[in-house]
Amino acid sequence: MPQPKRQRQKAGRQFRQEQIKAAQRRRKRRNQAFAIVVAVALIGIVAFAASRGGDNTDTTVTAGETLPKSACPKLDGSSPRTLDFKKKPPMCINAKNKKKYTAHVSTTEGDYDIDLDTDKTPKTVNNFIFLSRYHYYDNTTITRIDDSIEILQGGAPHTESIADPGPGYTIDDEGSGFKYSEGDIVMARAQGPNSGAAQYFLVYGNKASALNSQGTYVTFGKVKGEGLAVWKKIGALFEKCPDGDQTCLGGHPSHKVTITSVKIEEA
Fold first, then answer.
1. Residue 180, Cα to own-chain centre: how many angstroms?
2. What pLDDT is attached to residue 194?
3. What are residue 202's DSSP bridge partners?
4. Which ranges of 142-252 does DSSP label H, i.e. alpha helix?
5. How far apart are CA 266 and CA 101, in angstroms?
6. pLDDT digits over 41-75, tens only?
7. Structure letter (DSSP) for residue 238
8. Out of 17, 38, 54, 114, which residue is the most buried by the measure of CB atoms under 10 Å away?
9. Short-list 138, 129, 235, 119, CA closest to 182
10. Which of 82, 86, 90, 175 is nearest to 132 (CA)?
11. How far apart are CA 199 and CA 171, in angstroms?
């Protein structure tokens, strides 16, 4: 007869073998369950893509939705207002043929025109025109005035603040070493490179030269004629930011200033 010690050893080996087999069965069941979950998810993704018709269509959607593909807006201004895009704009302007582009801007404080510089900054101008023709800037406000550097900032339709999330993409910086003087329209951006998108600032005085040491904000146009007087009028509305307001930088207008429309003229 087997000795008690041998019986205990045999029983121990059998127990360990059963534990190993049980663990293998559990792993097998988990793997099978994971495979089923992945298969269901893939079926759902395929079905969703089929229902959307794919992202390769040039479908224009209304404000508040996302444009599946960033198609060029219609030149006659009939594209619906769109605030969100999945991709950065294609090249929609004809800069190679030396077309001239002017932005006609209407505000509650007066109107002004801006000559857009397609010679030095065609891609930045293209972005501004793309958004303007999708009415991105219509009925937005001047969100910031900073009298220490004499700038007005706008282009934030989602939140009407400097913390606006933007149109869903960023654009590349187009040069560096810029100098800033009154009458310039300039792309705003975060501290990092290639972080501009839609917000811009208007330089209403020469204190903006304090930014020359940075020179990273891309200047892409110049106000025409008496338009600078409108900018100075808005600048005179400066009111300091309330204490503790993290969405305010420098100051803001003492009353609401609205950009009612931005229309692009091509000549």
1. 24
2. 97
3. 152, 185
4. 227-235
5. 5
6. 333 333 333 333 333 323 334 444 555 557 999 99
7. E
8. 114
9. 235
10. 82
11. 12
* pLDDT of res. 67: 55
CB burial of residue 112 (10 Å; 0-12, 13-18, 19+): buried
Judged by DSSP in three states, 248 sits in coil
The separation between the first and the last C-alpha atoms of the chain, rounded to the nearest angstrom, is 109
The fold adopted by the segment(s) 66-266 is Cyclophilin (2.40.100)
Number of residues that this document lists for the chain = 267
Give the separation between CA 209 and CA 66, rounded to whole angstroms. 38
Q: Give Cα 157 distance to the centre of its chain.
A: 11
Which residue has tokens 């208007």?
Answer: 202
Q: Tell the residue number behind the tokens 């990092």, with chain if given.
A: 192
Q: Which residue has the tokens 């910086």?
A: 173
Task: Check residue 96 and give its pLDDT.
Answer: 79
Contact yes or no for 174/123 (Cβ under 8 A)? yes
Neighbours of 62 (CB within 10 A): 10
- Cβ proximity of 87 and 69 under 8 Å: yes
Q: How far is CA 176 from the centre of its chain?
A: 21
pLDDT for the residue 94: 87
State the Cα–Cα distance between residues 70 and 56, nearest whole angstrom: 10
DSSP states along 185-226: EEE---SSTT-B-S-EEEE-SGGGGGGTTT--SPEEEEE-TT
- Token reading at 66: 């996302």
User: Could you give the CA distance from residue 25 to residue 255 in angstroms, rounded to a whole number?
Assistant: 71
Non-local (6+) Cβ contacts of 13 within 8 A are none
